Structure formats: structure tokens, C-alpha cells
Amino acid sequence: MGERKFIHYLYITLKGMAMGIAELVPGVSGGTIAFVTGIYEEFISSINNVNIAAFKTLKNDGFKMFWNQLNGNFLLALFVGMMLSILSLSKVISWLIENHPIPVWAFFFGLVLASVIFVAKAIEKWNFLSIALFIIGTITAYYITTLPPSANTDSLPFLFFSGALAICAMVLPGISGSFILVLLGSYKTVLDAVNNQDFKIVIVVALGAVFGILSFARVLKWMFAHYKNATLAILTGFILGSLNKIWPWKKVLEVIKIGKKEIIIDENISPFAFESDNQLTFAIITAIIGFSLIFILEKVASKE
Hints:
Blueprint: H1 6-24, H2 30-36, H3 40-48, H4 52-61, H5 63-70, H6 72-99, H7 101-121, H8 128-146, H9 156-171, H10 177-184, H11 187-195, H12 199-226, H13 228-242, E1 250-258, E2 261-268, H14 277-303
């Protein structure tokens, strides 16, 4: 990789912003966006650089060598972008999902559907193994999206595990971290801990997340190095299976109140069950925009 200029880091920050937007939507993973924008493998490799060797470099050779070894500029640009999105757009995304759910979900449905095609294109050779792994990935992700939320739990070892699992889901294309917290029953505990500044719980979940991302990134990097096609096949399946979660037309079965937040239990229904033709037309348009956006991002990433 050649020396990056400021404009390249600006692009990476914009990609980080797109990842942040994805993470704000329950059911859409930032990992999917990282993959489509061409930074997924560098993202995984850079996380892997956070290890004991890096801290030895800091001690022996100083901060500059340590920062280069970390690929620090890349990670900083990416996380600045993610934080900018999360801090500035969370209210906008929440408002849109609450007031215009069908066109918003249709946009993300189109976006994620195009991601399936995009990731599948990266598989160099489809054979029996890759097809089998693709099917396993699809069924696993679909099954996860149909699970009911668990009862709330606040045991510290379980919260550590929840943090580790949620961050792994965030890195994986397909399933979002916040959705995993809802399934595990840790969402309310974590949300309350953040709102009430319960630092004990926040620190335990954060340590779980650090443990999860550092160990999981190693596994992913090894899989990409040794079994790239098989890994891509599973990831393609994960993204396809997760589409169930973001189908735009849903019927609400139950609403569970969690503090100020609500968790909605729903089921997918036909778009024709809705009476408004306008909404269907608008949803198809936003789905096409979402679908096209992936291929526009691909063009931009390949030009860069």
C-alpha cells in the first residue's frame, strides 16, 4: 500500500460514517458496509495489530513506530467517522424509523440485498463446500433473526460474554451488535447502565467487547488468509439470512417496554396487506436507491 494522502483518510472517515449509520439501524451491520467499501480486510488486520508486540514497540521504539505498526491513521479516521455518525445522526435515524418505517426499511433492504450479490461476486470458486457453507450461513442468520428476546439479566460474567458477542456481530457482515444484545436480554441492562452512569457494568461490557473484537479479529484474519472462499461463502449466507430482520412490511405482535425504549416483536407480512399504494411505490423507489448505492460505492472504492 502506497503512502496515503489526507484525501484518502477523508474517504476512510466517510466510510466510517457509513458504518456508523448502519450500526444505528437494528438489524444492519457495520461489517457489511466495511466489506462493500473495500476496507473489511484492512479493518480486521488493523484490529489484529493491537497486541503485546505493539506495546513492546511503544516501549522500545517510541510512539511513532507504535502508531505505524497499529495502522493508527486508518483506525483513527475510521473510528472518527463512526463516532461522528453515531453522535450526530442517531436522533435523525430514530425519527425516520419511527415516522417513515416502510421506506426506510425498504432502503436498507435494497442496500443489504445488493451486498449479498457484492460479497458473492468476491468468491473466486463456487464448489460443494462453498455452497454448503453459504446455506449454513443463511440458515444460521435467519434462525438468529427469528429468536425471541430473552429475559433481562445483569450477572457480570454474562454481561462480559454479551459485550464480546455483540462486538463480534458488529464486525461480521449481516447481523448487528445491538440486535444480539436484545436477543441475549442484556440490552436493557447495558442501556440503563449507560444512562445511570453505572461504571461497573459499562466497564465489564466494554472489557467483553475488547476481548471479543481482539480474539474474533484474529480468527477472521486467519480464516481470510487460509480459507478465503469458504469465509466469504459463510459471510454471504449471513447477509442473506439477515434480510428477514429488515423486511419492510411487518405486523406488530407485541411491544415490550424497556425504560424509555421499546422492543417490538413482529412478523413479516405481504406488502399488499397495506392499503396505501403510495407507500408501496415509495418503498420500491427507496429500495432501488439502496440497491444502486452499493454498486456506486463499489465504483468509488475501485477507482480509489
